[in-house]
Amino acid sequence: MRSLCSVDMAALLRGHWDIQAFEEVLACNIKDVIAEFCLTDADIIRFYADNHLHGNMGDIMMSSAELFFKGETLSYGCAANTGTDQGDSSIVFDMEFVHGAVTVFFQLIFGNRDIGVTITRIILDDSLDEADFDPSSFARILSSARLRPLPLRFMSSYCQDETVRH
User: Fold this and answer.
1) Which partner for 116 in 52, 61, 101, 109 could form a disulfide, CB atoms 3.0-4.6 Å apart?
2) How many domains does the chain have?
3) Which domain holds residue 58?
4) What pTM does this model have?
């Protein structure tokens, strides 16, 4: 059993980590998954989210991610919230990324006009030193979890050209 240490966002900010950089790297690496997910009818997605049909949502997310990520590296976190105000058709999905020494819990936000990513928690196991974890190392970890390289048009300025893949 691996030992895990949790790194919450407040600690990251106190440690002078730029959380937006981590979110940018994550968002860049899942753009193709989001594009695939958006091919699903929006009314079906809203119905599943409103009726808490998490198994169905998980299947849609898994089928969108399996084209681009290994195994169950990127998965639906079994929670979705829909906008309840008139004119607010946003949907927020809890998501998880697990690969190697890193677990990231984040929200995938489909707004009325935009899509966003908010990291809520990062967990590192003891084999990865918190001081060595930066956006570039996170980009390498995400890259090693992918089935094929990230298209150049999706690259973040934090992603290095040469990434380690296993």
Assistant:
1) 109
2) 1
3) 4-149
4) 0.81
